[in-house]
Amino acid sequence: QYLNDPKVIETFMRQAIAATGLQIVHFHIQEFKNGSSFGPGITGMALLSESHMVVHTAPERRGFNLDLFSCKPFDASRVNNLVHITFRPDATHRWEVVRR
After folding, report:
1. By C-alpha distance, which of 91, 81, 59, 98 is closest to 15?
2. pTM (two decimals)
3. β-strands 63-70, 51-58: how paired?
4. Can you spell out the DSSP letters for 11-80?
5. Of the candidates 91, 79, 75, 77, which has an alpha carbon nearest to the alpha carbon of residue 46?
6. Is 84 helix (H, G, I), strand (E, B) or coil?
7. Region 40-60: what's the mean pLDDT?
8. Predicted confidence band at 66 (pLDDT cuts at 50, 70, 90)?
9. Which of 29, 63, 73, 86 is the 20 to 30 A CA-CA neighbour of 56?
10. pLDDT tens per residue across span 84-100
């Protein structure tokens, strides 16, 4: 399953960041095993020159959470399209906050 594969998560994140034109300053992927109180999963964090991107997965619950913040405007639909292509979710909930 894609949600428990660190390589899939990293590839997705790097593609999403590239699609937005944002720049990675630091990148880290952390795998969590069953010892966690929330069960297994993966957290990916990218410090961006414009802000940050964080992904959390919960494979047992088929959950995927993505936070992408930037002080530079970007096309969020590109990231949304990559989510659908990579993970093929049954349903999504998307919140987009635009501050001017």
Report:
1. 81
2. 0.90
3. antiparallel
4. HHHHHHHHHHT--EEEEEEEEE-TTSTT-SEEEEEEEESSEEEEEEEEGGGTEEEEEEEESS---HHHHH
5. 79
6. helix
7. 95
8. very high
9. 73
10. 999 999 898 888 887 76
d(CA 100, CA 56): 28
Residue with tokens 């960041």: 17
pLDDT, tens digit (0-9, with 9 covering 90-100), for 70-81: 999 999 999 999
What is the phi/psi pair of residue 42, to 5°?
A: -130, 140
pLDDT at 34 over 90: no
Please give the structure tokens belonging to residue 43: 């957290």
Between the alpha carbon of residue 5 and those of residues 1, 47, 57, 99, the distances in Å are 7, 21, 10, 34
Give yes or no for a contact between 42 and 4, defined as CB atoms under 8 angstroms apart: yes
Q: How many Å apart are CA 51 and CA 72, to the nearest integer?
A: 9
Question: Which residue is listed with tokens 């594969």?
Answer: 5
